[in-house]
Amino acid sequence: MSLSPDMLELIPALPCDIEGPVFREPWEAQAFALAVDAHAKGLFTWTEWATALSAQIKAAQLAGDPDTGETYYSHWLATLEGLTVSKGAASLEHLKQVQSAWDRAARATPHGQPVLLDNDPLAS
Amino acid sequence: MRALETVLLAKGYVDPDALDLIVETYETKIGPRCGAQVVAKAWVDPAYRQRLLADGTAAVAELSFAGRQGEHLKVVENTDQLHNLVVCTLCSCYPWPVLGLPPVWYKSAAYRSKAVMDPRGVLADFGVTLPPEKTIRVWDSTAEIRYLVLPQRPAGTEGLSEARLAELVTRDSMIGTGLPLAAGASQ
Lengths: 124, 187
Prior knowledge:
heterodimer, A: about 120 residues, 2 domains, B: about 190 residues, alpha/beta, two-stranded parallel sheet, two-stranded parallel ribbon, 11 helices, about 45% helix, globular
């Protein structure tokens, strides 16, 4: 299959790299590990994972994500959140409640102290 | 993400020790050097090369490289007539057990689309020019099948040890976006 030159110009240049570190930031490593472990413990099959991740990436592209590969682990995380809910491990509502608890805990924690969920002032 | 982790921990779908082990493994133990060992062994051991091409999953398991996602590994061999290029057009599936995690460009929309539409242009982006008569075959990875390119052994490497040969095998040469280093070079 070949493309006309003007079509090729629409494809952005490839971001190249050396054989560098696999995770750019610690949260990417954590997001990666969460999905791999949840799969190992049977939350979803890897085919289900790939299907969901593909759909997530496609949706992000349609929503204007430049999709240069640098947002990959954001899509990864959103996919895990979606599967956690669709597989019934937690409701979206519960997930949002826990997220709010973490946000409150972060605000209630003095600067320089580790943020713990126990620091949530509404925690019982 | 902390909320997700909290919920999955509470439900027993993840545990902290396993998470640490996964990160450590992919940061320090699994990477392109695993695949390079496989390629170098195939270059010096014809029987291993045959087993590798017949059943990649089993052959890399001989070297203790095994997948966690239950995927099948297919090894595709470059020849004088054929060059292989690997992509995952949908979500960046990649042969983790032998290459570690994919580089950023492998996950970009630019690579995912251009590899299929204009593989020769992709190779040019990576500084690789092949003879026009050489066929380029593009392999689209899936959750079930991952591909590893077995590059051609560089000329003039007849006397080199397997360990020295492995040093010539670059990550990109096993994806198909590069070629092995020339004899005498090092990474």
